[in-house]
Amino acid sequence: MVFVKRAHGSWLPSLYRVALTKQFSTSSEGGGKVYELRTYVVHPRDQRQFLDLSKEWLHLRFAHSRCLGYWTCELGGGINDMVHIWEYDSLQHRAEVRQKLAGDPAWIGNYFSKILPWLQRQENDVLACLPGTDVKEAPGKGVYELQHVTWSPDPPHAASLVKNLARPGATLLGSWYAALSKPYLGWLLWHHIDLDNVHKTALKTDETNKFYVIQSKVLTPTPWSPLK
Q: Which residues form the NIPSNAP domain (predicted)?
């Protein structure tokens, strides 16, 4: 296998380079949008304060870009994790939003400066929709599940695999791959009719397609989440 050197000095298979080159060139991956998956790990003693302040002030953040959903982790991850997904027209759009937020005194003074001491850790990943897919609306209230998976490093191949996934009582709302790192990493956002359906319809390892579920988080919508 041929390897190519990246700017920061690490090495990746040339197949990954091809996939990364193509990642924003297909026509129907969520309209060319990018998505940011953010996870805030809040100290247990500060969780109630975080939730109350977020309910009061997160409308300031929603004015800048679309939030798909904002959840607390119920099962499968840190129970103090706050998981949220944001949509942007491009990486440049994200940079502009972040710059505006940094210069917004109401946002900084009333919210962001106050939550910083409560955060043990912040994580984020930049995602792109698999080719031929887009983000769907939830069919109603229910239970959400975010799966972190591995699959083919070729996004069109991964898209064909996802198209054939079937889970009775569940709706696949979004399917993404890592836009800036390793395209063999992916995320699936599911809506379930109830909590038991998450377990009853759990996805199995598919050795033929090299499909593996790394982690599955069951998520509960916050009061301000667009997805309820």
A: 35-129
